[in-house]
Amino acid sequence: xxxxxxxxxxxxxxxxxxxxxxxxxxxxxxxxxxxxxxxxxxxxxxxxxxxxxxxxxxxxxxxxxxxxxxxxxxxxxxxxxxxxxxxxxxxxxxxxxxxxxxxxxxxxxxxxxxxxxxxxxxxxxxxxxxxxxxxxxxxxxxxxxxxxxxxxxxxxxxxxxxxxxxxxxxxxxxxxxxxxxxxxxxxxxxxxxxxxxxxxxxxxxxxxxxxxxxxxxxxxxxxxxxxxxxxxxxxx
Length: 236
What we know:
This protein is an alpha/beta fold. It contains 8 helices and 10 strands. GO terms for molecular function: phosphatase activity.
C-alpha cells in the first residue's frame, strides 16, 4: 500500500493541485483528505468539486462542519468566523451536501495493522490533540479506543510523527495553510515495507502563492491570510 495523506487544504486550490500532482508522480495508489477542506482560503467551491471529481475519500474538519451546519457550540471569533461566513455564501447546495455527507473517520488496513484517520480527536473534530505534549498513556488510550496501531490526526497545521511503544501517530501538516514557518503545501506519504512496518515521508511543495494572495485580496478576505500563505506562519 502507498497512501498519500493531505489535510488542512483550507480552500487553497493551487496548493491542492500541487499536492495532487506530486502524489501522482510518486505513483500513490490512494489519496486521503483529512479535513479542513474549506475555511480561510478563497477557493471553497473549486476545492470541494475537485476532491469530488477525483473521488478522494475525505473526512470533515471543524471548519467543514461549521460551514455545513449551524453547530450549537461556542462561536469562533476573528478571521475564522469571517471566513466561515463568507465560505457559506460561496457554496451551492451541491457543495454543502458534499460536506454534510462526509464520514468522521476513515479506516485503512496496512501490513502492520489498522490505520484510522480523523481530524481533531476521534470523538470531536474541534478538540485538537497535542501529539507532542500528550502523555504516552493518553496516546495509547486513544489508539486502543479506535482499535488501531496507527492514527493520522490532523489539526495542528505542522507535520509531526510520534511513536509510543508499537503505536504511531502522524499529523500530515497543512496543504493550504501551513504553520511550520516555511511556506508550501505539506503532504504525508505512507508505505508498507516488507517487514510489516509503515514507512513515512513528509513533502513540502511549492505552489503559486501569488495567485492565492491575489484571490484573497480580490475577495477582500482578511489581509493577514496573505502573509500566512507567503511566510508559512502567522505574523508575530
